[in-house]
Amino acid sequence: MFFQIFEKEQIDYGFVGPNGFTLYRACFERLLNAIGTLKKPEAEWSLLVPKTEDCFFWLLEQGTKNNFDMDNILQIPTSGGDTCFRCATIYSPKIAKYILSRRIMINSITTDMLVPSFRYPELAKGMMDKGINPNVIG
Questions:
Q1: Do 73 and 97 form a contact (C-beta atoms < 8 A)?
Q2: Taking the mean position of all CA atoms in its chain, how far away is CA 44?
Q3: How far is the C-alpha of 71 from the C-alpha of 76, rounded, in Å?
Q4: Nearest-angstrom CA–CA distance, 101 and 97
Q5: How many CB atoms lie within 10 A of CB 3?
Q6: Nearest to 83 by CA among 45, 113, 110
């Protein structure tokens, strides 16, 4: 499917790199590159969102099948403080809703003072219920 060049047994679903990146956080890299580095307009980069979601949920399914503690893995921040949840609040309400529904610590702040985004109004109540205040840092 997504990792056709690998045998499923070769993928370490619990991988955490030296900078704190997990496979799940890495799902957003192509999307972030299209936006930040390549400066693609939203009409173009938004086409990558469904592919990002498919990859994320496939990895999540495989990690769960292989008995990894997915909730613990999904809350791991990078060395800069970024998380899957913060990326999801900006680009994928589908992934953000999934993370909100789990017992995952989502309070985070990056080294450049970024917090989870309140871009999607349908996520606001769930985020505030989990302790994220949209008025802490503006």
A1: no
A2: 20
A3: 9
A4: 6
A5: 14
A6: 110
Partners of 16 in the β-ladder = 22
pLDDT in tens, 91-112: 899 999 999 999 988 877 677 6
Q: Which amino acid is at 128?
A: M
Q: Residue 2 above 50 pLDDT?
A: no
pTM above 0.85, yes or no: no
Are the beta carbons of 30 and 48 closer than 8 angstroms?
yes
- 28-85 tens-digit pLDDT: 888 888 888 888 888 988 888 999 999 999 999 999 999 999 999 999 988 888 889 9
CA pair distance 22, 9, nearest whole angstrom: 17
Residue whose token pair is 């990690």? 63
